[in-house]
Amino acid sequence: MAGRIPDAKVKSATGHDWDHWTSVLDDFRKNGYNHTAAAKHLNVDHGVSAWYSQAITIQYEHDHGLRAKRQKTSGEFECTVSRTINATHEACWQAWADPEEWSAWMNTRQTHDFRVGGEYSNSDGDIGVFTIIEPMTRIRFTWAHPRHSPGSHVTIEFRPVDPNRTQIGLVHGNLANTEEADELASAWRQMMDQYRNHLEEDR
Length: 203
Fold this sequence. Notes:
This protein is an alpha+beta fold. Helices cover 42% and strands 25% of the residues.
């Protein structure tokens, strides 16, 4: 999780603090533990909203060693990065879709065939195939690099905030462990900052 939700906020939203919900899940856990069942228990039996049921359950799992940092309920690891860019929706999309623009902010010698099934590569040794392209909405591609475990994928989503601001969300999923997810999170934060600077300062 990005960080523990403050106790006062949890109590305001659910009527009880972290100690209470920890005790509830401790009791639930005595007969075995399953993430989906635990979240449903909070939601259905204790009247906690769906979002807070998930948030409390995930935090409990982190606190009790049931889930590693950056680990999903499926057992896979992922990293997420988001930025709000002071640029139009179209400009933000084009900076990913056009190979020359992509090279200008991401990596040198960036080449890609921007279509589903098309391949890309760059000077850092990253290679992959585009698997989803939903114009102005979402891009997904496989990602491979010699230093990392094979089989991961990257999803980028684009959402206009207003005519001159766009929110970009990036998820790099199917990673091997916390260490790999942390390393790639750091790299993607740098890349997304370069992306934002390219759009906000170079135009």
